[in-house]
Amino acid sequence: MNNFEIVASSTESTVVAEYTPEKRKSTDYQSEAALEQDFINRLVSQGYEYITIKSEQDLIDNLRTQLEKLNNYTFFDKEWNDFYNSVISNGNDGIVEKTRKIQEEYLQNITLDNGYVKNIKLIDKTNIHNNHLQVINQYEEDGGKHDTRYDVTILVNGLPLVHIELKKRGNAIREAFNQINRYQRDSFWAGSGLYQYVQLFVISNGTHTKYYSNTTRFQHIKDNAEKNAAKKKKTSNSFEFTSYWADEKNRT
To answer: Which long-range contacts (CB under 8 A, 24 or more apart) does 28-37 make?
Structure first.
């Protein structure tokens, strides 16, 4: 793995001291499927585990397994169901509440069957290498307004925290940005709403790659609720608010 010295990080860009892009043949990534498979192969070579998950129940079962590994504890079924329904998939929680659990309240309590209270970590922020990274692709969500299939998602301890939407070379990455907005409208909230935990979105066509945070997507929801005000100004729903990675010479 390459380690890059970060010079500065802001909402506009992440600056590293120096980065030399890999040279690639012009014939690379002739299709979206080829781009997707190459990207997954690169993640696997860096230590991500590739798993096949096609249904929400598979996603939930894997989440339970990963949290048990992280916390060195095996849930009884009742404990898991209570924890999952009250903490992870609480119907009263939206994007803001779920983001808070990832960023600030990642240590949650569970009352065991014997009456004792145990701390359960969603993420280990002290020893970050204890967190397990997995990658899935073509996950299907059929509980929304329309059936959808997501390109690539990175799971951290079983929770979907990074989503990558890809378009084949030659297509504008704005199309991927618009696709994610459609997911927000049609399906991210569906079922248990686990995809509302995504913190970072990446859009790429193999040539150009940008990123933006879930707060950009959250602002998009607010903008839709305030259409008149949104028409008068640029908002973080705008594609212009997405960012490139750059080195200290401002090379993307």
So the answer is: 28/169, 28/206, 29/168, 29/169, 29/205, 29/206, 29/207, 30/168, 30/169, 31/168, 32/151, 32/166, 32/167, 32/168, 35/166, 35/168, 35/169, 35/204, 35/205, 35/206, 36/137, 36/151, 36/152, 36/166
Asked if 196 and 188 count as a contact pair (C-beta separation under 8 A), the reply is yes
Same domain (yes/no): 110, 189: no
pLDDT score of 233 = 53
pLDDT digit string, tens, across residues 206-220: 888 888 887 765 555
Place of tokens 């009250």: 86
Same domain, 149 and 105: no
Task: Tell me: pLDDT of 248 over 80.
Answer: no
- List the domain range (segments joined by +) for residue 63: 58-121
Please indicate whether residue 23 or residue 152 has the higher confidence score (pLDDT): 152
Same domain for 182 and 242, yes or no, is yes
Distance CA 231, CA 111 (A): 48
Q: For residues 19 and 25, what is the distance between their CA atoms, to the nearest angstrom?
A: 19
CATH code assigned at 72: 3.90.640.50
- Same domain for 151 and 232: yes
pLDDT in tens, 160-200: 999 998 888 778 887 777 777 777 666 565 567 898 899 99
